[in-house]
UniProtKB/TrEMBL annotation:
One of its GO terms (molecular function) is L-lactate dehydrogenase (NAD+) activity. This is malate dehydrogenase. It comes from the Archaea. Residues 148-311 form the Lactate/malate dehydrogenase C-terminal domain. Belongs to the LDH/MDH superfamily. GO terms for biological process: lactate metabolic process; tricarboxylic acid cycle. Its EC number is 1.1.1.37. It catalyses: (S)-malate + NAD(+) = oxaloacetate + NADH + H(+). Keywords: NAD, Oxidoreductase, Tricarboxylic acid cycle. Catalyzes the reversible oxidation of malate to oxaloacetate.
Amino acid sequence: MLKVTVIGASGKVGQSAAYAISRIPSITEIVLFGREGNEESLDGLKWDFTDAFAAVGRRIKVVSGADPSLIRDSDMVIITSGAPRHTGQDRIDLAKGNAKIIANYAKMVAENAPDTILFVVTNPVDIMTAVALKYSGFPPSRVFGLGTHLDSMRLKSFIAQHFKVHVSEVHTRIIGEHGDTMVPLWSATTIGGIQLKNLPEFKTFTGEEMIDWVKAAGHYIIERSGATIYGPGEAIATLARTVLGNENRILSVTAYIRCEVHDIGDVCIGVPAMLNRKGVFPIPIRISPEEVEDFQASVEKIRRVTDEVFDYLENEGF
Ligand SMILES: NC(=O)C1=CN([C@@H]2O[C@H](COP(=O)(O)OP(=O)(O)OC[C@H]3O[C@@H](n4cnc5c(N)ncnc54)[C@H](O)[C@@H]3O)[C@@H](O)[C@H]2O)C=CC1
Ligand SMILES: O=C([O-])CC(=O)C(=O)O
């Protein structure tokens, strides 16, 4: 008996996430939430979902609207509202504009669903997670972002293709910014538990090229089809299922770290974290000296922009 609210459900990512989430068996209610003026389109979406659930024989309550009281008692609130980037833009370019939206919604969530777990998708996701944490006043374990989970899945898929194995055999992760300074953890990458360098296909493996592809993936898709929709939708549903299903899996999400990665902390950024019904808990890791150096650079960039955004919000009266 679980209730999940998607804020920004009229948008492309909100819609695909809400639909992907509806396949989680324990979810019994979905709230399609949006800003005032969007009630009609959310109502249309509600009835479309209802038809889809009838077609697959799924009993699930769908509610839609813009009234904050709708989100009461949500077990999880997912925020996908905000501007997406367009061709030629960096995710960071969206920071100040989207920060206002996230700050307002974080306050609204804290007032109406004070015990919920808040899951941020809006870009730039690391900075928006920090904004949501600050303005909700929630403990860090109850605020997290999509982070480098989707990047890690993209890398996993490239590695699986190269080594000609099923994706489930590949264990890898990317940490740091969901953006240009992301850091692949080759030291933690294995196939079926075997280090890549011990496999014959390693001779032709070009890790750096793969990372360049992962960094460019969002831009490539946006340039061709307008938006990334189904990749984020499924990635969001995986994280929602992991948390709500108390699965205790370790996935790469944006979380507030204190000192878990070689004593680097006080920032919201992509790191491996344990996900369960209580929320998100970064796990202490040791990585190679080169990876630490790259992670430190990523942290510095995210800290700098986060500070700029916090100053901006304060000047704007938030
Ligand atoms: N973290 C990640 O890996 C990913 C993040 N995203 C981000 O998700 C966000 C949404 O992307 P799309 O759904 O493609 O965009 P979209 O344009 O299709 O939808 C935007 C949604 O935000 C709402 N919105 C826009 N301005 C608003 C405002 N001032 N106040 C309240 N609501 C407002 C719209 O009503 C709509 O529901 C973007 O920031 C995008 O960059 C998208 C894909 C992956
Ligand atoms: O690239 C974008 O702007 C959307 C996104 O974050 C992604 O799909 O990774």
